[in-house]
Amino acid sequence: MFKVNEILMKRQLASGVKEIIIFAPMVSRAAKAGQFITIMTDEKGERVPMTLVDWSATEGWIKIVISEVGLTTLKLGSKEVGETLYYLAGPFGNPVSELNSSTIILVGGGVGVPAIYPIARSLSRNNTVISIIGYKNANSILYEREIGEVSDEVIIATDDGSKGQKGFTSDALRELLDSGRKADAVWVIGPAMMMKACSEVTRPYAIKTFASLNSITVCGSGMCGACRVSVGGKTKYTCMDGPEFDAHEVNWDELILRLGAYKEEEKRALGRYILRSAN
Ligand SMILES: Cc1cc2nc3c(=O)[nH]c(=O)nc-3n(C[C@H](O)[C@H](O)[C@H](O)COP(=O)(O)OP(=O)(O)OC[C@H]3O[C@@H](n4cnc5c(N)ncnc54)[C@H](O)[C@@H]3O)c2cc1C
Asked: Does 41 sit in the ligand 1 pocket, CB within 6 Å?
């Protein structure tokens, strides 16, 4: 029998991006599209949020996809199959808003692409789903097949044009809307700059646009307040009120500023970890 929080599978999807399956039966039974978990790799580690990409309530596992950008995600990526995580809690956040008989455009960038997968799967049951998935280049493409399985149409964009359309996801979104395609709603998940750009594209079309925010989140349950964001001039908590918000109402500049608040400490912590690992 597996241990709770045991890593069952790990695979590299692209440089610095890993898919990890974890035995977490309680979470898998409650999971819904759009929700996230928080994890700690070890007792002294920090607590970080990760989107639930997939799960099986019958087999008791959950799947996350991580981008190794700093100390915790590097430590998480270096955990081997059979090892357990010190802490894992969730699901947190509200499930995705449900729509019926609508045409929906889902936009995912980088590790935001796996994050739109459960949303596409859920919404594709009753809606037409067009997915725009964006990457740096052809080598960083991931979840193309999975997104294809739950979308009516997939548009790929790469920054350098090495696969699909050349340009950012916001360019592909603009092209699609300018070409006359109608959409009832748009969802965007990815780096904050990307979500901001996409929300500016849909604003003149007055298309309802949802963004799944990635503010610094610690407890996941509304107690610490770290994840607060300004939406429509009001303070909201990403973990309790989100993570999905009206993208046209988000104060993007404040979010982007706050995401960089601990850059120096994060750099120092990563440097210490790399030094320790080398010795
Ligand atoms: C609801 C939610 C879902 C997320 N889902 C995913 C996912 O599925 N896959 C994935 O790779 N990433 C996801 N993230 C982002 C992920 O949590 C951060 O990349 C991670 O915490 C970085 O930690 P680090 O120690 O590796 O890097 P650090 O060097 O500590 O930080 C690098 C950057 O990551 C951001 N960050 C740091 N700590 C946090 C934190 N506690 N919460 C949020 N952002 C932080 C900051 O912008 C920081 O500058 C999600 C974030 C949120 C809020």
From this structure: no
